[in-house]
Amino acid sequence: MASSGTSSGAAAAARGARRTERLLNLVIALSATRRWLTKEQIRAAVPQYADCATTVAFERMFERDKEDLRELGVPLEAGGEDPLFGDEAGYRIDRDAYALPEIDFTPAELAVLSLASRVWQQASLAGPATRALVKLRSLGVEPDESSLVGLEPRVRTSEPAFDPLYAATRDRAPVSFAYRRAGAEPSTRHVEPWAIVSWHGRWYLVGHDRDRDATRVFRLSRVSSAVKRIGRPGSYDVPTDVDPREVVAGTVGERATRRARLLVRTGSALAVRRRAVSVTPAPAPAADPPGDDAPGADLVEVDVADVEVAADELAAYGDAVLVLDPAPLRDAVLRRLRGAAGTSPDPAPAGAAP
Asked: For the chain, which residues make up each domain, given as ranges?
């Protein structure tokens, strides 16, 4: 019976995922052009519609999806280029009503957005979006790709366990995996995932360990097997009085830090500025010619817990950030930049500025 319940739960989750992808493809198709799209054009552009065996099956699916989009607040319109000539009815999304109004962000808010954009990098919906655009072009419809900005959530992480554990956390589905603790052999763990947390450059899973009947924290880099679902979605509740970050902080603990001094180009590295201990304008080098076009820079001090993790972040800013000290952090950043450029490890000019 448990096996049957698990199978039916997995099947329901798969159907939900296909429906979500289909609705996303439909939104992409209807948002990527200012023209009215006929049903046949939509059927050809959305892969799941093209797979319908009959026109009747497509019509039923499309009608359900139209209602779903409208219930979600998507302004789906029906009309045609010139109703006086009895053109076939078409559909499109009212982009003026669907788009957000102009938004102004404070520096702190921009820092949060910068962090988010760096977290969501690994393309998870790029495939469906690209296929939809290719289909539209093949039908003679030139997409307006600028309207698709913000439609593709992405996640970047080097941990293979991240995606399945994130999905299990979202679906509230219990999982099992082999976990390797420091200095010990891997053991199988059975967990109800609650949340995934980034802490000092590492990813952690917080959840209920069924074997120990207690809250536990698992570092994703120590998950040494494939993650398997062992129960149906929604089979447990996540405690509302538990702060996952506090659990990780209490388990992993704070790491010793050292102060780093950076020269940061004005208006750049917002995420670094956000957590800075101090930010002061840096004096312009005497060799710089005067003029409004000369880029300014700030002296930024931050506390660094892990030199290698910090180097990964700072190297991504390129010449917008120069590490003044400590020397180990500066050397780690230079190694990454030289490796990316494919150059020999010649010392960088001491007076180089961002």
From this structure: 10-98, 107-148, 162-252, 258-341
pTM for this predicted structure: 0.42
CATH of 162-252, one of 2.60.40.10, 3.20.20.150, 1.10.10.10, 2.30.30.520: 2.30.30.520
Mean pLDDT of the chain: 76
Which has the minimum average pLDDT: 33-37, 88-92, 119-123? 119-123
Phi, psi of 92 (to 5 degrees): -160, 170
Torsion of Cα atoms, 138 then 139 then 141 then 147, to 10°? -70
For the chain, the three-class secondary structure string (H helix, E strand, C coil) is CHHHHHHHHHHHHHHHHHHHHHHHHHHHHHHCCCCCEEHHHHHHHCHHHHCCCCHHHHHHHHHHHHHHHHHCCCCEEEECCCHHHCCCCEEEECHHHHCCCCCCCCHHHHHHHHHHHHHCCCECCHHHHHHHHHHHHHCCCCCCHHHHCCCCCECCCCCCCHHHHHHHHHHCCCEEEEECCCCCCCEEEEEEEEEEEEECCEEEEEEEECCCCEEEEEEHHHECCCCEECCCCCCCCCCCCCCHHHHHHHHHCCCCCEEEEEEEECCCCHHHHHCCCEEEECCCCCCCCCCCCCCCEEEEEEEECCHHHHHHHHHCCHHHEEEEECHHHHHHHHHHHHHHHCCCCCCCCCCCCC
Q: Return contacts of 345-349, CB within 8 angstroms, 24+ apart.
A: none
Q: Taking the domain 10-98, which CATH number applies?
A: 1.10.10
